TrEMBL record:
Cofactor dependence: Mn(2+)
Entry-linked CDD domains: Agmatinase_PAH
Protein name as it appears in the record: Agmatinase, mitochondrial isoform X2
Top-rank lineage group of the source organism: Eukaryota
Residues that bind Mn(2+): H155, D178, H180, D182, D269, D271
InterPro entries associated with the record: Agmatinase-rel, Ureohydrolase, Ureohydrolase_dom_sf, Ureohydrolase_Mn_BS
Native source species: Lingula anatina (Brachiopod)
Gene: LOC106167048
Keywords recorded for this protein, A-Z: Hydrolase, Manganese, Metal-binding
UniProt record, GO biological process: putrescine biosynthetic process from arginine, via agmatine
Amino acid sequence: MSRLQLLKKFAQVVTLQVQQSRTFQGSAQCFRKFNAPLSGNDLARPAGIASMMRLPVQETSEDLDVCFVGVPLDAGTSNRSGTRFGPRQIRSESCIIRHVNNATGAQPFDSIQVADVGDVWMNIYNLPEACKNIKDGFTKLMSTGCKTLAVGGDHTITWPILQAVKEKHGPVGLIHVDAHADTQEAMLGAPIAHGTPFKRAADDGCLDCQRVVQIGLRGTCGTLQDYKWGESKGFRIVQAHECWHKSLAPLMEEVREMMRDGPVYISFDIDGIDPAFAPGTGTPEIAGLTPIQALEIIRGCRGLNIVGGDLVEVSPPYDTTGNTALLAANLLFEMLCVFPGVKYADV
């Protein structure tokens, strides 16, 4: 075979590989090449750029089903700061996340297109302006049909994200895991802070209040009425002591019935977990949920119409081991596994 013939043959092979990597849609089937975490056998885990789960990084959400997006904000914190470093540390610890969920059979990286789109741009020195920046950034990401998993950042970020979600999906059901209700009217007179996002979201019509559940609330309160506002709106409140010494799988059966087939957003504050497991956070409260219960909650969301989610309040300076961020990275993987479109194998 001549050199010219060899070159033509090589060109044909390359063309075929390119064609196979594109999306083909027909009446019977769809072929698609998906992004996946880089294996530790291809590049040592401490090496490389610290993207979320070692996925590819891209500047836009084009052609993505779900994207990870960092929101490095802590201007809304009331106690210990440091959550602006959360996205960076969670990405770093996520290098150990692999391809499939062996416990549930979930295969997100064989089912949906996922990438890290970096951090949303915002003015971290001006909290109201930062919230507008976040809303605009998430609106743009969602405009392509992509769903978002936000990596926080303090809990203030959830309000502007829910504003963007409302524009796309209307009022949503909410599965909120936290030590705190975050439904205050204001903090020191300021209406925007990490203790007010769900009051603001409800006021803005972002929530379907009859489909809101808050799990893990605990700690000392200002008054005995602190949870009454949410209950008056229709929120279901599940305090942490109601979860002690038990599986939360039965609770999640009730939550699935509550959420029905409407759009659902998951917001997970890492301080919902007991500080023995997750000390790296700004407002820790004792006697919280366990990581096992956290998995039961998230895995219990399978089958729901999940339209977005976030993991917030990781403050790396308060956990030098990195274990809080490692837990957060794993919880984000579990959230990814319950998005619509993810296929499951029998296990």
